[in-house]
Amino acid sequence: MAVPAKVAERIMVALDYAEAGQARQLVEALQGIPCYMKVGMQLFYSAGPQFVLSLKEQGYKVFLDLKMHDIPNTVKGGSESVTRLGVDMFNVHAAGGKQMLEAAMEGVDKAISGSSHSLAKPIVIGVTQLTSTNQKVMNEEIGIEGSVEAAVLRYARLAQSAGLGGVVASPLEVVQIKEACGSDFVTVTPGIRPAGADIGDQSRVLTPAEAFAQGTDFIVIGRPITATQDPRSALESIIASIK
Ligand code: C5P
């Protein structure tokens, strides 16, 4: 895919808020910066499709991060609905298996072929291993053997074989994913912390500049922007640190 050249367009701001009002305040504070907006389950479950539509009306690219994982027929329906909303990207868990991933792609095609107005085809992204998961948790609690990197690569190949456009992974895994799946296979990497920032519940992290140096297409940043007094300055200094 053609990756947007400008740095800001490759930064996804995670609007992890409980209410539309708080998220709207952040969007206003960042006005004029052409970043990608990421709507996750906290905001979507409270503010719903309306909030996504309002971001689209303001011209933002939107990543709807709902991490679908269900039986294929249900995921197909969910994918059809979110494609109709006009999102630019959404994700499904690669752990749902190939049939479920293919069903997600069928949902996208159904929405697009059934739409009376022109709908852009969203990039569908597979969730590999959450960036909060370390090897001990993956082995002992989730029950997947081997290294996190091996599991991530297996999921990336599976997602690609089902027709997805890319994966969510740690920035530490980007080089191997691009080697295995090709440079056009999109990587979206959370687990980003500017130097000295609080890691919180993330486990496999890099700085924004380090993540782009690994060759990632998009970085996702939440709390280092949203939990500060001055989110605009936080985002501007992240952008400056990359240039
Ligand atoms: O606040 P922080 O920068 O840790 O936020 C990271 C964001 O990326 C959150 O919205 C989280 O849900 C999301 N995410 C993640 N790991 C994934 C997929 C999404 O942290 N594998």
- Mean pLDDT comes to 94
Biggest sheet layout? 8 strands, parallel, barrel
Give the overall form. globular
**What is the overall number of helices?**
10
* Quaternary structure annotation: single chain
Give the beta-strand count. Answer: 8
Which small-molecule ligands are present, each listed once? Answer: cytidine-5'-monophosphate
Q: Helical proportion?
A: 40-55%
- Measured by DSSP, the beta-strand proportion falls in 15-25%
Catalogue the unreliable spans: 1-5
Q: How would you classify the helix and strand content by structural class?
A: alpha/beta
Strand order of the largest sheet: 1-2-3-4-5-6-7-8
> Could you give the order of the helices and strands?
EHEHEHEHEHHEHEHEHH
Radius of gyration, rounded? 17 Å
Note the gap between the termini: 22 Å
What does this 3D model show about the protein?
The structure is a single chain. By secondary structure, the protein is an alpha/beta fold. The chain contains ten helices and eight strands. Strands 1-2-3-4-5-6-7-8 form an eight-stranded parallel barrel, surrounded by five helices. α8 links the parallel β7 and β8. Mean pLDDT is 94; it is low at 1-5. Cytidine-5'-monophosphate binds next to β8.
What's the quick description here?
It contains 10 helices and 8 strands. The chain is an alpha/beta fold and 243 residues long.
SSE layout:
Blueprint: E1 11-14, H1 20-29, E2 36-40, H2 41-57, E3 62-68, H3 72-84, E4 89-93, H4 98-113, E5 123-127, H5 135-142, H6 148-161, E6 166-168, H7 174-181, E7 186-189, H8 208-213, E8 218-221, H9 223-226, H10 231-242
The site of cytidine-5'-monophosphate has 15 residues, from β8.
